[in-house]
Write a structure and sequence with these properties.
The protein is α+β, with helices and mostly antiparallel strands. Helices cover 22% and strands 32% of the residues. β13 and β14 (286-287) form a beta hairpin.
């Protein structure tokens, strides 16, 4: 009798990883589940319980229902050092980081794979909305494993087996943006069982199998920490430091309590502690104001009204460029890029270490990620600099 392939699935207690576990089991895998405890300092405001304990209870119930073993992996120490501490350091410099990308790169995948290998398991899986395609060198064909089926195309002779990252079927839930920094080793050992499904379909499957979490809202906020008041969270480590808010002409129009609490493109107004909502003298319409620039050296924020040129940027400098399965010299000149998880795919030109967008857009923030695509394939990405 052929032995089943073992897979260690990251089971969070949410509907996506639960359905991923179900699908893997149906395909004949020997599924083992792992709940990853990376942060224990966030409590549920209603129950008062630590969020991770509540999530683990959900995961245990799903594992029990599917009759699969589950373990708890504690990476809190590593998560604090490699993700949280790094995040605070960048915020102190006035940079807006993306901890979800660091979490996937430093914790979720490499450490899950490491734990799997300790247990004699060669594959891991998660409930991410993304696809992995395997490219096998051959003088005749390149084979890809997509949605449980093999597809083939003519390829070049020679070379090594490589793995591509592609956007999910459900573009509204696609998470390839957060996965651009994964290594070839990560992709080689990873399965994304729901990459070919829509969120609506995932919920239907969960409901059909009577999963209690079939209508559970997805988690938002910082990876493993969840939804928090960012200002309150940052203030635990970064002391408030008041400074001036200037208009585009350099006139002082307000006081902020710390540039690290605000990001480029963020709305300013009475709701956010600033009386910057002014009336257009011509249209009588109330004008919205946004953070246009931050200067850590002078501790000042420049705010601009909607539509002002300062709110728009067309050129992005790339730092810490990471390419998934190609060399820098193989980067095409014409690509599409994203600067947000499910933001617009913007046509752009790559020139040296810069990305020049076809049209200027708002909300481009230093420290965030620009992710590069060619059709559905994610080529890689970089950290945004100015």
């Amino acid at each position: 009798m052929k032995q089943k392939l073992k897979v260690l699935l990251a089971l969070s207690g949410g509907v996506d990883s639960s359905v991923a576990a179900l699908l893997l089991k149906k395909k004949g895998y020997d599924v083992h589940a792992a709940f990853m405890k990376n942060w224990s300092d966030t409590k549920n405001k209603i129950t008062g319980e630590c969020a991770w304990m509540e999530e683990r209870d959900h995961a245990i119930k799903i594992a029990s229902k599917l009759e699969i073993p589950i373990i708890t992996l504690d990476f809190e120490k590593e998560y604090k050092k490699l993700v949280v501490d790094k995040m605070f350091k960048k915020y102190k410099k006035g940079i807006t980081p993306n901890p979800d990308i660091d979490c996937n790169k430093q914790i979720k995948f490499p450490m899950l794979i490491k734990e799997a290998k300790k247990r004699g398991i060669d594959l891991v899986a998660t409930g991410h909305y993304a696809k992995i395609k395997k490219k096998t060198p051959s003088s005749l064909f390149n084979f890809s494993w997509v949605g449980g089926r093999f597809s083939a195309m003519w390829g070049k002779a020679g070379g090594e087996t490589s793995f591509e990252l592609h956007r999910a079927k459900d573009e509204t839930k696609d998470q390839s943006y957060f996965l651009y920094a994964q290594s070839q080793n990560d992709l080689k050992h990873t399965l994304f069982p729901i990459g070919n499904l829509t969120k609506k379909r995932v919920r239907k499957i969960a409901k059909k199998h009577k999963f209690q979490n079939h209508d559970k809202k997805g988690t938002v906020g910082i990876c493993f920490i969840g939804k928090v008041n960012l200002k309150e969270f940052l203030s635990k480590k970064i002391k408030p430091k008041k400074g001036k808010i200037l208009d585009p002409k350099g006139k002082e129009i307000g006081i902020h309590d710390g540039i690290y609490y605000y990001t480029i493109g963020q709305r300013l107004g009475p709701r956010y502690g600033f009386d910057l909502k002014r009336q257009d003298p011509k249209t009588k319409r109330m004008i919205k104001w946004y953070v246009a620039k931050k200067d850590p050296k002078t501790n000042t924020i420049v705010a601009a009204p909607e539509g002002h040129p300062l709110n728009f940027r067309k050129e992005i400098k790339m730092t810490e460029l990471h390419l998934i399965d190609i060399k820098k010299s193989e980067l095409p000149k014409r690509v599409t890029v994203r600067i947000r998880q499910v933001g617009e795919l913007i046509p752009a030109t790559i020139k040296n270490n810069k990305i020049i967008l076809d049209k200027p857009i708002t909300g481009i923030s230093q420290g965030q990620a620009v992710v590069i695509y060619k059709k559905t394939k994610c080529l890689g990405g970089a950290v945004i600099d100015f």
